[in-house]
Amino acid sequence: MIEIPEQKIQSVRNDFPILSRSIYGKPLVYFDNAATTQKPNSVIDAISNYYRNDNANVHRGVHYLSQYATGAFEDVRKKVATFVNAPSPNEIIFTRGATEAINLLAWSYCEMFLHAGDDIIVSALDHHSNIVPWQAACERKGARLKVVPVTPEGQLNLEVLEQLMTERTKMVAISHISNTLGTINPIAEIIAMAHLKNIPVFVDGAQGLSHGPVDVQKLDCDFYAFSAHKMYGPMGIGGLYGKTSWLVEMPPYQLGGEMIDRVTFEKTTYNEIPYKFEAGTPNVADVMGLGAAIDYLNNLGWDFITSQENDLLKYATARLQEIDGITIVGTSAQKAAIISFLIEGIHFFDAGTILDHFGIAVRTGNHCTQPLMEVLGISGTLRASMAFYNTRAEIDMLVDAIHKVKTLFA
Amino acid sequence: MTINETIDQLINEFNQFDDWMDKYNYLIEMGRSVPLIDETQKTDANLIVGCQSRVWLSSEYKEGIIYFTADSDAVITKGIAYLLIRVFSGHTPTEIVEAETGFLDKIGLKEHLSPTRSNGLLSMVKQIKLYAFAYQVKEKNSL
Question: Which pLDDT value is given to residue A254?
């Protein structure tokens, strides 16, 4: 691990204008990065610059601006492909975010490959977005949804997963990183296990792509979804990586616009991948923002990001554990900088309300993982999710504020 | 005391607090002292949806007057529930149906409550109004 000088973090913080604002007269301490990360100036500028200088509809214009916008749009697709090391940019489909990517996949893949009596495996750790679309597909097709259980520490039980996988299993859909507990799932191992039985694997990377490098070829995952707004990019854009061999077989999810090849009233044929899955005018401005976010992360480098986040995770875990009555929920050895915790005798809602008044943004509740809450036997947690621009000083402020919360409710 | 008199009283009480901490301290105290509803009334039917914390609201209609009781697993929510009960409990259905509900703004609570929370709060107010409306209809039908 490299030592990060204080000035470096300060200069990184200066890239994010929102971090210097105050809330109720106190400096903002933003610990809700798993919900959405803040955006650097370069991302904000890329979006406004697009509308100021380059706005035109893509893919169908002979005029200069349209061709320029199309080029810039397709360059970002290449950039995303390089970022996750996809073999071809054609394997990157732009969507509104990870949730839409999963809906696209669950509908389109299951339409072709899921039949009555088959099953799909999800996990007890997963976000509703990686449960409900699969559940709906199973209901539609008369298939069964199977669930990998989670240990009290917040890890997936791989022995049970192995037993759940049968010749009727058509997909294993697992998150890369748990948004609630921070657990980094052993996805490489899961993919290898599933592939031994010829089962494809989808990885929900909504939390994955911001915390460390992802190499879809090395992982050999069949599909990987992400959201730009959780990786310092804009809201409303994300994507799905899929292996060509699957994507060409899958029927389109939405119809009209760019996804069309030839239309007659007798028969319509569809465009090639990835366009087959991108109906309507795409969100070009936010694609520009996504491109800027990837540039920003590349410039910063994963060494800095992972060192800083690991340091924050370690420091925050240690400082929180010093407080009487704090229980950290999710203690997997492999964790991202996401900490769920409970304060004894104080409802998470009460604690979150008071922390807010100290300018500290944490999330409270079930974090869109109700099945996980049920397994853990709790109704919710407080969650502090950190990013590389957070500081040890901010963690100290959180700890001080928790002491004040405890006094207030004593 | 009429509903409007109680609201004025609440606004006066909350105007005394300069500091948000004092305001919440007061709510927490209230939350702890609010009469609990009967355990048998903590049913799913009495559970209010839209709150991050669980809130139960129960009503009883006696000789033309509605009485409310409430509980929550979060103390601040319970404190706010108590304020609502202080305002609305012990009045006729018509008085409750016709009452203004903007007073949470005036006591500086709504502005401090996040949308999720304020949804819960609004659901609570809406539920109180619905009960009153239902009893009002019942009264009319029995005439």
Answer: 92
CB contact under 8 Å between B76 and A349, yes or no, is yes
Residues of B with CB under 8 A from a CB of A: 20-21, 24-25, 28, 52-54, 73-77, 112-114, 116-117
The pLDDT assigned to B47 comes to: 84
For the segment A338-362, the average pLDDT, to the nearest whole number, is 95
d(CA A60, CA A73): 13
List the domain range (segments joined by +) for residue A99: 44-298
Alpha-carbon separation of residue A292 from A50, A91, A289 (angstroms): 11, 20, 5
DSSP A49-88: HIIIII---SSS--SHHHHHHHHHHHHHHHHHHHHTT-S-
Query: Which CATH number fits the domain that encloses residue B57?
Result: 3.90.1010.10
Most confident of A58-62, A69-73, B122-126: A69-73
A257 vs B: CB within 8 A = no
When pLDDT is averaged across residues A215-239 and rounded to a whole number, the result is 98
- A409 contacts on B by Cβ (under 8 Å): 28, 75
pLDDT over 60 at B37, yes or no: yes
Q: What are the chain B neighbours of A380 within 8 Å (beta carbons)? A: 52
Q: Give the structural domain span for B118.
A: 3-142
**Of B51, B70, B84, B99, catalytic:** B51
* Shared domain check, A293 and A209: yes
Per-residue pLDDT tens for A271-325? 899 999 999 999 999 999 999 999 999 999 999 999 999 999 999 999 999 999 9
User: Å from A242 to nearest chain B CA?
Assistant: 36
Q: Which of A246, A265, A298 is the last residue of a domain?
A: A298
- A368 catalytic? Reply is yes
Burial class for B104, CB neighbours closer than 10 Å (0-12, 13-18, 19+): buried
Size of interface A-B (CB pairs under 8 A): 40
pLDDT for B108 beyond 80: no
- Contact list in B for residue A365 (CB cut-off 8 A) is 52, 116
Which residue is closest to B79 within chain A, CA to CA? A350
A368 vs B contacts (CB less than 8 Å):
none
Cβ within 8 Å, pair A357-B21: yes
Q: Is the pTM of this model over 0.90?
A: yes
Q: What angle do CA A213, A205, A109 make, to 5 degrees?
A: 130
H or E segment to which residue A342 belongs: strand A338-343
User: Phi and psi at residue A261, in whole multiples of 5°?
Assistant: -100, -65
Determine the average pLDDT of the residues in A337-361.
95
